[in-house]
């Protein structure tokens, strides 16, 4: 029984049937009419007037509609995701609303609301619904704004891209809705003015409350409540991934434009162009001089508080300044090479102090030592350290440059072969994307993890499949790469190789156990890609493998 497809709650179908029955009664009564003291169809209820019958049936219809929505929410998520179930529920609710609209003139008869068009109620409710929808979205996006510490830790701006987009979209719309509300109040019948606030407030408060309730009362697959902080952290992670995706796209487009790499070229041509542009000899030196842009004072002190203790280890330095950014020194880095532009940068004052103290400790017997010389060295070293922090790890830089000897030297120095950049790249990912089999072999022998992907989930094997690099793909599979890992779009190496028509790699992946039935986010399998891009030979291979995987 566990493998049965989940269905909507049985009570939902009872509510649905009731809605259609009551709606039909209203339609018959509205257009055909019922004589006084005639019993209502099916219900076997006799009322004194047709007006009373409309009010009773309309009340029952409204109650059934709310109950239907409640039961819909209680039904399994998998059943609600069905297109047929969603269409059926939507049509039923629309039918209920139309039936209530038709019955309104009789419901409001002989009351102060007689003659008031239902369009006024609909207009105010719509404004409340839209204010709640955009307001809750804006509130959630605002919660996603990063603290200064979070932004520094992940190297992203404080304002997520999605939040900025929501501000640009939602704030003007909310302003227009507020203006529309006051215009409607100005034009509405006098009897509606006192009720308008209620019809706007109810859907608005409901949607805002539903958003915060979903955060505070969200449950996992086992039915356990997920703490509010954990829910927020999970959402922030998705916002971070969204921002990194934009960064990767923009960064890729910038590089492609800079090196004239066209996206419509074949994968082999793209990889060849990348190799030609990045396989360069790295500069052996950094020639520059630094100009201070801020004045600061230097204070020497004894670390243990004993001024008579003159040992080198006891000498400490403090930097004081009254201008500029606290904790940083503003300097101008001027390159000694004319083709390179100078730049201004903030360097950490604490790091300058650290280098200065190290320099004093290492030159205790230097009689020519001056304060200017010490701080010139300390500032230069801090600038170099800051500039290196802006670059990718050294191992990845030499991998990108295709410098096999330097890669081997660094690996012999026991560097972290699996170190990742802010966007998740490892040296093995770079080598696979560039198509350097020899470097891939060196990294794998040094213990590189074959399955670490970047922030978009793209693994070294997916890059090998993307560019049709048989040698790289073969090495990765030999060292245990998982052929069934998916990126953030649900794509596997098999789907990628199929999409670009690399039959040799498809065959290799199938032998390594690639699953032909995995679906991407558009519910497409590798076989679907083979048909879509008209790769008949690969489609035949995949069908054969699919049949083999179906066997017990």
From TrEMBL:
<keyword id="KW-0677">Repeat</keyword>
<dbReference type="InterPro" id="IPR002110">
    <property type="entry name" value="Ankyrin_rpt"/>
</dbReference>
<feature type="transmembrane region" description="Helical">
    <location>
        <begin position="196"/>
        <end position="217"/>
    </location>
</feature>
<dbReference type="Pfam" id="PF00023">
    <property type="entry name" value="Ank"/>
</dbReference>
<dbReference type="InterPro" id="IPR036770">
    <property type="entry name" value="Ankyrin_rpt-contain_sf"/>
</dbReference>
<feature type="transmembrane region" description="Helical">
    <location>
        <begin position="166"/>
        <end position="184"/>
    </location>
</feature>
<feature type="transmembrane region" description="Helical">
    <location>
        <begin position="12"/>
        <end position="32"/>
    </location>
</feature>
<dbReference type="GO" id="GO:0004842">
    <property type="term" value="F:ubiquitin-protein transferase activity"/>
</dbReference>
<protein>
    <submittedName>
        <fullName>Ankyrin repeat domain-containing protein</fullName>
    </submittedName>
</protein>
<feature type="transmembrane region" description="Helical">
    <location>
        <begin position="52"/>
        <end position="70"/>
    </location>
</feature>
<keyword id="KW-0472">Membrane</keyword>
<dbReference type="Pfam" id="PF12796">
    <property type="entry name" value="Ank_2"/>
</dbReference>
<feature type="transmembrane region" description="Helical">
    <location>
        <begin position="119"/>
        <end position="145"/>
    </location>
</feature>
<feature type="transmembrane region" description="Helical">
    <location>
        <begin position="90"/>
        <end position="107"/>
    </location>
</feature>
<dbReference type="GO" id="GO:0085020">
    <property type="term" value="P:protein K6-linked ubiquitination"/>
</dbReference>
<keyword id="KW-0812">Transmembrane</keyword>
<keyword id="KW-1133">Transmembrane helix</keyword>
<keyword id="KW-0040">ANK repeat</keyword>
<feature type="repeat" description="ANK">
    <location>
        <begin position="489"/>
        <end position="521"/>
    </location>
</feature>
<feature type="repeat" description="ANK">
    <location>
        <begin position="423"/>
        <end position="455"/>
    </location>
</feature>
<feature type="repeat" description="ANK">
    <location>
        <begin position="456"/>
        <end position="488"/>
    </location>
</feature>
């Amino acid at each position: 029984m566990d493998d049965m497809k989940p269905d909507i709650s049985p009570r939902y179908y009872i509510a649905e049937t009731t809605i259609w029955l009551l709606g039909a009664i209203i339609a018959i009564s509205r257009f055909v009419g019922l004589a006084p003291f005639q019993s209502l169809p099916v219900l076997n209820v006799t009322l004194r007037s047709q007006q009373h019958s409309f009010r009773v049936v309309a009340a029952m219809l409204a109650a059934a509609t709310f109950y239907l929505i409640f039961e819909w929410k209680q039904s399994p998520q998998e059943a609600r995701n069905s297109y047929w179930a969603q269409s059926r529920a939507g049509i039923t609710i629309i039918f209920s609303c139309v039936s209530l609209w038709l019955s309104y003139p009789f419901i409001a008869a002989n009351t102060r609301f007689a003659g008031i068009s239902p369009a006024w109620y609909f207009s105010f409710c719509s404004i409340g619904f839209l204010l709640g929808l955009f307001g809750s979205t804006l509130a959630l996006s605002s919660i996603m704004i990063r603290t200064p510490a979070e932004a520094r830790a992940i190297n992203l701006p404080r304002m997520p891209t999605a939040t900025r987009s929501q501000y640009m979209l939602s704030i003007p719309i909310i302003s227009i809705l507020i203006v529309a509300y006051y215009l409607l109040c100005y034009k509405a019948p006098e009897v509606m003015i006192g009720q308008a606030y209620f019809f706007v407030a109810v859907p608005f408060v409901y949607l805002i409350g539903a958003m915060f309730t979903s955060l505070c009362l969200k449950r996992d697959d086992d039915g356990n409540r997920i703490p509010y902080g954990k829910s927020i952290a999970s959402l922030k992670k998705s916002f971070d991934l969204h921002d990194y995706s934009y960064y990767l796209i923009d960064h890729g487009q910038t590089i492609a434009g800079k090196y004239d790499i066209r996206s419509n070229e074949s994968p082999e041509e793209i990889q060849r162009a990348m190799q030609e542009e990045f396989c360069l000899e790295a500069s052996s030196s950094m020639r520059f001089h630094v100009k201070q842009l801020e004045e600061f004072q230097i204070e020497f002190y004894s670390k243990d508080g004993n001024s008579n203790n003159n040992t080198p280890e006891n000498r400490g330095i403090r930097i004081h300044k009254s201008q500029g950014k606290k904790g940083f020194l503003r300097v101008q880095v001027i390159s000694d090479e004319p083709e390179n532009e100078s730049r201004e940068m903030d360097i950490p004052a604490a790091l300058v102090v650290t280098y200065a103290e190290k320099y004093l400790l290492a030159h205790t017997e230097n009689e020519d030592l001056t304060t200017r010389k010490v701080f010139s060295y300390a500032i230069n070293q801090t600038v170099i350290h800051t500039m290196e922090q802006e670059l990718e790890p050294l191992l990845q830089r030499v991998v990108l440059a295709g410098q096999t000897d330097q890669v081997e030297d660094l690996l012999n120095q026991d560097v972290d072969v699996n170190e990742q950049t802010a966007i998740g790249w490892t040296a093995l990912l770079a080598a696979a994307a560039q198509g350097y089999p020899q470097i891939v072999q060196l990294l794998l022998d040094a213990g590189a993890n074959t399955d670490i992907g970047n922030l978009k989930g793209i693994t070294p094997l997916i890059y090998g499949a993307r560019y049709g690099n048989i040698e790289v793909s073969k090495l990765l599979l030999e060292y245990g790469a998982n052929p069934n890992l998916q990126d953030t779009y649900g794509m596997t190496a098999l789907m990628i190789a199929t999409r670009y028509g690399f039959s040799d790699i498809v065959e290799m992946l199938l032998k390594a156990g690639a699953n032909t039935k995995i679906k991407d986010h558009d519910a497409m399998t590798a076989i679907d890609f083979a048909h879509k891009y008209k790769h008949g030979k690969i489609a035949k291979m995949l069908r054969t493998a699919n049949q083999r995987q179906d066997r017990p």
